[in-house]
Amino acid sequence: MCQDIIEPHLSNKLLRELSRSTKPKKALLVYAKMREKGYVIDSFSLPPLLKASTRISALSEGMELRGFASKMDFVSDPFVKTGLVAMYSACGHIEDARLMFDKRPERDIVAWNIMIDGYGLFTHSYCVNGRYNNVLPLIEEMKRSNVQPDEKIFSTVVSACARAINLEFGKAFHEFITENKVSVDYNLQCALVIMYVGCGSILAHELCNYDILCRKLAF
Fold first, then answer.
1. Are residues 211 and 140 in the same domain?
2. 10 lies in which domain range?
3. What is the Cα 204 distance to its own chain's centre?
4. What Gene3D superfamilies would the database entry show (predicted)?
5. Does the pLDDT of residue 190 top 80, yes or no?
6. How far apart are CA 131 and CA 95, in angstroms?
7. Between 104 and 58, whose confidence is greater?
8. Are both 121 and 180 inside the same structural domain?
9. Is the pLDDT score of 183 beyond 90?
10. Per-residue pLDDT, 68
11. What does pTM read for this prediction?
């Protein structure tokens, strides 16, 4: 039998390496050959393949993987679900990404980051259409789930507040950052400045900007 030629763990290792390489599309080409030759493809094969699809925004290949995952009952795997969320987000199908995200009951910081970043990828269109506020309830849900946001998530949230012109929510998150002694890096500090400027809070902007200057002088 063809599937006996390559052990699944070896083929999966190959797929992982290719998905991380400078040419992730090769992982998808290898997958096509594996299907053609009848090699074993298990739930561990899908995350690297979805990662490859995400990196090159290959929607058609990602949809094919989604169909295969459903057929083989792999969609329940949390890593497959997270991979599908990332793929849909990267390809601009944010509603499909959210539907898949909502189907995962247990969500770690990686899953939350991917979903929130998905909204962040389409900042302009969501702001223009007045839909960027969708990310704000998502952050509240994250907090209720007892998942601690990291600096990357805070930067995305603060940027969301700026584009939604939601000073109240932005200030609340700034207070949350301070109260929880979250480490504020340069990118997050800049995001806060932009948020206050965008919301018309000039005084707060000047205070934050002064803090940035102090940080620069300290190095």
1. yes
2. 1-106
3. 30
4. Tetratricopeptide repeat domain
5. yes
6. 12
7. 58
8. yes
9. no
10. 96
11. 0.74
Q: Judging by beta carbons within 10 Å of its beta carbon (0-12, 13-18, 19+), is residue 39 exposed, middle or buried?
A: buried
Distance CA 51, CA 163 (A): 29
Are 5 and 91 found together in one domain? yes
Same domain, 60 and 146: no
Q: What is the pLDDT of residue 159?
A: 79
Domain boundary among 63, 83, 106: 106
Closest CA to 69 of 56, 53, 57, 55: 53
Of 26, 77, 72, the residue nearest 49 (C-alpha): 26
Angstrom CA distances, 6 to 15, 21, 27, 46, 153, stand at: 13, 21, 16, 17, 40
Instruction: Provide the Cα torsion 168, 170, 175, 181; round to 10°.
Output: 170
Helix boundaries (H) for the chain:
8-20, 25-37, 46-55, 59-71, 78-90, 94-102, 109-121, 123-128, 135-144, 151-163, 167-179, 186-198, 202-218
The contacts of residue 23 (CB under 8 Å, 6+ apart) are: none
**What is the total residue count of the chain?**
219
Angle, helix 135-144 to helix 151-163, in steps of 10 degrees: 140
Give the chain's domain count.
2
Q: pLDDT for 114-170, tens place per residue?
A: 888 887 665 544 444 445 566 667 777 887 888 877 777 788 778 777 777 778 878
Last residue of a domain, one of 106, 139, 173: 106
